[in-house]
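Per reviewer request, we include the raw input and output of the structure prediction for the construct analysed in the revised manuscript.
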Amino acid sequence: MQFGAYLGLDEREQRLLAYGALIHDIGKVEIPRSILTKKGKPTEDEWRIIQMHVIWGKEIINAYPSLQEFAPLVELHHERLDGRGYPYGLKGEQIPKLVRILTILDSFDAMTTERPYQRTKTVDEAFAELKRCAGTQFDPYYVDRFIAMMLETAVPRYVTS
């Protein structure tokens, strides 16, 4: 919500972004726990299963007419600005604005929270990764705005375990 307000999104877009952020990974309920909690890299077969969560999530969302407006956030949050994402390989402006924003928020969260498959990054390390991937994975406009907002709001500089 804070980032949506910072960007000047209207109330509807802020609501879509906030609720979309909460439910975007709903399709992971279909992934076996052994894959989700595995330490280390997934196998090729496990990776294909993991990638299916966006399709399964869209199917779950589409079963509820009141949630269908969130479908792009659920289905497309692993698309990349350079077209190398999934499930469709969308590129640049083909990816809806709110999805491009959510991808940054989700990635920052993934980097700065404890996960069994990777070391938790500090806030500064996560900022550096977002900047490094701006223009390929992430929309550079929103990366710059996100980091600026975080710095302006005095976010703690390091995540503690």
